[in-house]
Amino acid sequence: MLLLFRCLLTLSSTSLFVVIYLIKSHIFTSYFINKYVEIAIYFSYFLIIMIINVILLISVRFLENSSLSSSRTNENMINNVEMVNHSFLPTYLGYFFVSLSILDRDWIVFGFIYSIVFVFTFYSQTNYFNPIFILMNYHFYYVTTTNNTKVFLITKKLIKNPKMYKFNNLKRINDFTFIDRGDI
To answer: In degrees rounded to 5, what are phi and psi of residue 176?
Structure first.
Protein backbone atom coordinates (compact mmCIF):
# COMPACT_ATOMS: atom_id res chain seq x y z
CA MET A 1 0.00 0.00 0.00
CA LEU A 2 2.85 2.39 0.82
CA LEU A 3 4.38 1.97 -2.65
CA LEU A 4 1.00 2.69 -4.28
CA PHE A 5 0.55 5.71 -2.01
CA ARG A 6 4.02 7.04 -2.89
CA CYS A 7 3.29 6.59 -6.63
CA LEU A 8 -0.02 8.45 -6.24
CA LEU A 9 1.77 11.17 -4.25
CA THR A 10 4.37 11.53 -7.00
CA LEU A 11 1.67 11.60 -9.69
CA SER A 12 -0.28 14.29 -7.87
CA SER A 13 2.78 16.45 -7.23
CA THR A 14 3.93 16.29 -10.87
CA SER A 15 0.48 16.56 -12.43
CA LEU A 16 0.76 20.31 -12.99
CA PHE A 17 3.66 19.52 -15.34
CA VAL A 18 1.22 17.55 -17.51
CA VAL A 19 -1.56 20.15 -17.32
CA ILE A 20 0.72 23.00 -18.35
CA TYR A 21 1.92 20.97 -21.34
CA LEU A 22 -1.67 20.10 -22.36
CA ILE A 23 -2.77 23.73 -22.14
CA LYS A 24 0.31 25.05 -23.94
CA SER A 25 -0.06 22.50 -26.74
CA HIS A 26 -3.81 23.12 -27.09
CA ILE A 27 -4.51 19.42 -26.67
CA PHE A 28 -8.26 18.72 -26.96
CA THR A 29 -8.92 22.42 -27.67
CA SER A 30 -7.55 23.05 -31.16
CA TYR A 31 -10.81 21.93 -32.77
CA PHE A 32 -13.00 24.28 -30.75
CA ILE A 33 -13.68 27.81 -31.88
CA ASN A 34 -15.71 28.68 -28.80
CA LYS A 35 -13.43 30.07 -26.08
CA TYR A 36 -15.90 29.08 -23.36
CA VAL A 37 -15.52 25.41 -24.27
CA GLU A 38 -11.75 25.83 -24.23
CA ILE A 39 -11.87 27.40 -20.78
CA ALA A 40 -14.15 24.59 -19.58
CA ILE A 41 -11.61 22.03 -20.79
CA TYR A 42 -8.79 23.85 -18.99
CA PHE A 43 -10.92 23.92 -15.85
CA SER A 44 -11.54 20.17 -16.19
CA TYR A 45 -7.76 19.56 -16.23
CA PHE A 46 -7.51 21.31 -12.89
CA LEU A 47 -10.56 19.44 -11.59
CA ILE A 48 -8.92 16.11 -12.44
CA ILE A 49 -5.83 17.15 -10.44
CA MET A 50 -8.03 18.08 -7.48
CA ILE A 51 -9.80 14.70 -7.65
CA ILE A 52 -6.44 12.90 -7.64
CA ASN A 53 -5.42 14.90 -4.57
CA VAL A 54 -8.68 14.18 -2.75
CA ILE A 55 -8.20 10.44 -3.44
CA LEU A 56 -4.66 10.79 -2.13
CA LEU A 57 -5.82 12.45 1.08
CA ILE A 58 -8.52 9.82 1.58
CA SER A 59 -5.94 7.04 1.17
CA VAL A 60 -3.77 8.59 3.91
CA ARG A 61 -5.88 6.78 6.50
CA PHE A 62 -4.38 3.46 5.39
CA LEU A 63 -0.87 4.53 6.38
CA GLU A 64 0.80 3.63 9.68
CA ASN A 65 -0.17 5.73 12.72
CA SER A 66 2.49 7.81 14.40
CA SER A 67 2.98 10.69 16.79
CA LEU A 68 5.41 13.46 17.71
CA SER A 69 4.75 12.94 21.41
CA SER A 70 6.66 10.84 23.87
CA SER A 71 5.01 7.45 24.34
CA ARG A 72 5.87 7.39 28.06
CA THR A 73 4.98 10.90 29.19
CA ASN A 74 2.72 12.09 26.35
CA GLU A 75 5.01 15.12 26.21
CA ASN A 76 5.49 17.18 23.07
CA MET A 77 8.71 16.16 21.28
CA ILE A 78 8.88 19.23 19.01
CA ASN A 79 11.88 21.42 19.66
CA ASN A 80 11.97 23.68 16.59
CA VAL A 81 9.76 24.34 13.57
CA GLU A 82 10.71 25.82 10.19
CA MET A 83 8.05 26.57 7.56
CA VAL A 84 9.19 25.43 4.11
CA ASN A 85 6.23 26.28 1.86
CA HIS A 86 8.42 28.67 -0.12
CA SER A 87 11.57 26.54 -0.49
CA PHE A 88 10.14 24.11 -3.06
CA LEU A 89 8.76 26.79 -5.37
CA PRO A 90 11.90 26.98 -7.58
CA THR A 91 11.68 23.24 -8.26
CA TYR A 92 8.09 23.49 -9.46
CA LEU A 93 8.80 26.61 -11.49
CA GLY A 94 11.54 24.58 -13.18
CA TYR A 95 8.97 21.88 -14.02
CA PHE A 96 6.69 24.52 -15.51
CA PHE A 97 9.42 26.02 -17.67
CA VAL A 98 10.47 22.58 -18.92
CA SER A 99 6.88 21.70 -19.84
CA LEU A 100 6.56 25.03 -21.68
CA SER A 101 9.74 24.40 -23.66
CA ILE A 102 8.67 21.03 -25.12
CA LEU A 103 7.35 21.36 -28.66
CA ASP A 104 3.60 21.06 -29.16
CA ARG A 105 2.38 17.49 -29.54
CA ASP A 106 5.84 15.98 -29.25
CA TRP A 107 4.63 13.04 -27.19
CA ILE A 108 7.88 11.08 -27.26
CA VAL A 109 9.94 13.94 -25.82
CA PHE A 110 7.19 14.83 -23.36
CA GLY A 111 6.83 11.21 -22.20
CA PHE A 112 10.58 10.79 -21.82
CA ILE A 113 11.06 14.03 -19.86
CA TYR A 114 7.99 13.41 -17.70
CA SER A 115 9.25 9.89 -16.94
CA ILE A 116 12.59 11.29 -15.82
CA VAL A 117 10.90 13.92 -13.65
CA PHE A 118 8.56 11.28 -12.19
CA VAL A 119 11.38 8.87 -11.32
CA PHE A 120 13.60 11.57 -9.80
CA THR A 121 10.68 12.99 -7.83
CA PHE A 122 9.72 9.52 -6.59
CA TYR A 123 13.22 8.61 -5.43
CA SER A 124 14.29 12.01 -4.14
CA GLN A 125 11.17 12.15 -1.99
CA THR A 126 10.51 15.79 -2.85
CA ASN A 127 7.16 14.42 -3.99
CA TYR A 128 5.89 14.98 -0.48
CA PHE A 129 5.71 18.66 -1.28
CA ASN A 130 2.67 19.07 -3.47
CA PRO A 131 1.79 22.61 -4.60
CA ILE A 132 -1.90 21.65 -4.81
CA PHE A 133 -1.83 20.98 -1.06
CA ILE A 134 -1.12 24.67 -0.53
CA LEU A 135 -4.41 25.44 -2.30
CA MET A 136 -6.06 22.92 0.03
CA ASN A 137 -4.76 24.94 3.01
CA TYR A 138 -1.90 22.63 4.01
CA HIS A 139 1.44 23.87 5.30
CA PHE A 140 4.84 22.23 5.10
CA TYR A 141 7.32 22.26 7.96
CA TYR A 142 10.69 20.90 8.90
CA VAL A 143 10.30 19.95 12.54
CA THR A 144 13.28 19.27 14.76
CA THR A 145 12.44 16.91 17.61
CA THR A 146 13.97 16.86 21.07
CA ASN A 147 16.23 14.04 19.78
CA ASN A 148 17.59 16.47 17.12
CA THR A 149 15.88 14.53 14.35
CA LYS A 150 14.58 16.64 11.49
CA VAL A 151 11.28 15.44 10.04
CA PHE A 152 9.02 16.78 7.30
CA LEU A 153 5.48 17.53 8.50
CA ILE A 154 2.43 18.23 6.34
CA THR A 155 -0.42 19.76 8.30
CA LYS A 156 -3.28 22.21 8.11
CA LYS A 157 -2.16 23.80 11.36
CA LEU A 158 -0.30 27.10 11.21
CA ILE A 159 2.44 26.47 13.75
CA LYS A 160 3.77 29.56 15.47
CA ASN A 161 4.79 28.13 18.82
CA PRO A 162 6.11 24.54 18.58
CA LYS A 163 5.49 23.79 22.26
CA MET A 164 1.81 24.64 21.90
CA TYR A 165 0.93 21.81 19.48
CA LYS A 166 0.76 18.08 19.94
CA PHE A 167 0.67 15.83 16.93
CA ASN A 168 -0.84 12.57 18.15
CA ASN A 169 -2.75 11.69 15.00
CA LEU A 170 -0.03 11.55 12.35
CA LYS A 171 0.32 9.14 9.48
CA ARG A 172 3.80 7.97 8.56
CA ILE A 173 4.77 8.29 4.90
CA ASN A 174 8.34 7.26 5.67
CA ASP A 175 10.66 7.50 8.69
CA PHE A 176 11.12 11.24 8.24
CA THR A 177 7.82 12.37 6.67
CA PHE A 178 4.44 12.63 8.35
CA ILE A 179 1.02 13.99 7.45
CA ASP A 180 -1.29 15.27 10.15
CA ARG A 181 -4.75 13.68 10.22
CA GLY A 182 -5.82 15.65 13.29
CA ASP A 183 -8.17 17.91 11.39
CA ILE A 184 -8.99 15.87 8.31
So the answer is: -125, 10
150: left (phi over 0), alpha (psi -120 to 50) or beta: beta
For 110, counting Cβ atoms within 10 Å of its Cβ (0-12 exposed, 13-18 middle, 19+ buried), the class is buried
Backbone angles phi, psi at 148, to 5 degrees: 65, 30
Q: List the pLDDT tens digit at each of the 184 positions of the chain.
A: 678 888 888 888 889 889 999 888 887 766 666 888 888 888 999 999 999 999 988 888 888 888 876 555 556 678 888 998 888 778 788 888 888 898 888 899 999 999 998 998 888 876 677 888 888 899 999 988 888 888 899 999 888 877 777 788 899 888 888 898 765 4
Please give the helix or strand (H or E) that residue 177 lies within, else none. Answer: strand 177-180
Q: One-letter amino acid identity for 105? A: R
> 152-156 long-range CB contacts below 8 Å, 24 or more apart?
152/84, 152/128, 152/176, 152/177, 152/178, 153/68, 153/177, 153/178, 153/179, 153/180, 154/128, 154/178, 154/179, 154/180, 155/179, 155/180, 155/182, 156/180, 156/183, 156/184
For residue 49, the Cα-to-chain-centroid distance in whole angstroms is 11
